[in-house]
Amino acid sequence: MSRMLALACALAAFAMAAGSALAQQPAPQQQPSAATLPYGPPITLDQAKRAMAAAELEAAKNSWQVAITILDSGGNLVMFHKIDNTQLASIGASEGKARTALEFKRPSKALDDAIAAGGAGLRLLAVKDITPLEGGIPVVVDGKIIGAVGVSGALSSQDAQVAKAGADALAR
Q1: How far apart are CA 110 and CA 128, in angstroms?
Q2: Which residue of 93, 131, 146, 158 could cross-link 152, Cys pair, CB 3.0 to 4.6 Å?
Q3: Structure pTM?
Q4: pLDDT, tens digit, 9 for 90 and up, residues 74-87
Q5: Pick the CATH number of 37-171 from 3.40.50.150, 3.30.470.20, 3.20.20.140, 3.30.450.150
């Protein structure tokens, strides 16, 4: 019994020490979440060309046959390329991934993960016209969403790698 009391006192002392140490730490800087990023001016044709070139280069480097869609911040199609022999289903899927990333202000993988986790995430299945598959990435320039890149045709993680290459070409 005395061992239990000693252990309880030690745990209480540790908890108080840890609590005071945490209280002395400055609050971490909050990064803006994807949902709070504002929409900005639409991606320009020149920017879309640079993003498309980077995405195509990533796909070619890995021999992935994909469809690549770039939408502006208003959801309008700015550019689309389908690499030779890409499956036809990838055309609509690439646009859907880009639109999902744009409308939800986050990579489409976030919705994919939420649905895969089940529970409350399954409510996303009730949202009309979304493509909750990895491969859509918002394009952010100067802290504003100017468009989105969607890719389909390879494995979802590979689609995302190609989309990220396109989006990252403008983030520099």
Answers
A1: 17
A2: 93
A3: 0.80
A4: 999 999 999 999 99
A5: 3.30.450.150
